[in-house]
Amino acid sequence: MKTQVVIIGGGPSGLLLSQLLHVRGIDSVVLERKTKGYVLSRIRAGVLERGLLGLMREAGVAGRMEREGFAHDGTLISYGDEMFRIDFQEHTGESVMVYGQTEVTRDLYEARETANGKIVFEVDAVTIHYAKTDTPYVTYTAGGEDHRIDCDFIAGCDGFHGVSRQTIPVDQRREYEKVYPFGWLGILSETPPVNHELIYANSPRGFALCSMRNENLSRYYIQCSLSDKPEDWSDAAFWQELKRRIPADQADRLVTGPSIEKSIAPLRSFVTEPMQWGRLFLCGDAAHIVPPTGAKGLNTAASDVHYLYNGLRQYYETGDPAGIDSYSQKALARVWKAERFSWWFSSLMHRYPDQSEFDLKMQVAELEFLRSNEAAQKAMAENYVGLPY
Ligand code: RFL
Ligand code: PHB
Hints:
With 389 residues, this protein is α+β, with helices and mostly antiparallel strands.
């Protein structure tokens, strides 16, 4: 088989890239290790930046998102019983969109299928060959048979545990990592959200987040210990702990119900450099991870897709490789800013095991500064709605 771009990974990055290339007449094949059902069962991101919305429109897949998504003009931050609002519209003239990653992925699968796009599920042993030459190819097994696809370029969109990053020899990449000493326990429940905007809560018992997917689907998170297991937490224990971490008036209004999903995510900051090796390009979680505080993971994956898609388009339309040659440098410049914001917001909102009394005073001072200072709020709002591409 032959195609222009082999895309490894059928998560949001790989599907979005494939659909954008299709709109410009560029051919791709997506290789996905799992089934479509499995990919769609992963509950992850919920907040989309304007840049991702623009890409969804350009890819021709924004219809349902525009109808069913919720524009949010601000967010709430609480500490103890204090709560204040960061107004995105006032400070940036922009909003974010609450629309689940599952829905983004579903819309992309539907568009790829309508266009007869080639997606191979349940692939195994994906191997990248000769990425440093002009004639790379990818081999894999599917349905018990060996396959080979010759191509011009390979996009590694296979997430943090994929093969693409590992293909780059260790002496030719550098990895930067920070592992946080806690996780997030998240639940999804068919209950109305406690508030119409998200609440990020810093409490003496640890961080909590009140988020949502729609008017009758809530997503809540609490900071938990890394040794906790989801089955250690009954629904009743989760609700009780959440109520203790958010302001009392919110806790009184909270509607509880059975969870329909419960999982724990560890928190990590991670970047690999460079994001290009010959004709292999890394996109999204394959190249970087942020802690979820601030909702930058999927959005940063989307900005990578933007740079790669435009580079490939320039190459195929004009023969000019300038865009693909500068991919890593452009993508990383934005990645590091998203890393900084996610690290800063995580540090501001969580309880750390080794935090001193002084460190706690610093958190409160910073929260009070943010609450009262226009410039600090503007900086927060600009980062939250997404820095320009
Ligand atoms: P994905 O989604 O991990 O998809 C990678 C795909 O590659 C497949 N794969 C392979 N396929 C073929 N061969 C191999 N060898 C393969 N190895 C892996 C996998 O099966 C998978 O289908 O990466 P992608 O596309 O880069 O997308 C990244 C996002 O999923 C991620 O950044 C976000 O979910 C992070 N995130 C959030 N991001 C936001 O922008 N806003 C949010 O509100 C937000 N909330 C979150 C989050 C992540 C969370 N968790 C669980 C990590 C909340 C949570 C709790
Ligand atoms: C979510 O709704 O899953 C979500 C929202 C905001 C975040 C992280 C996760 O910062």
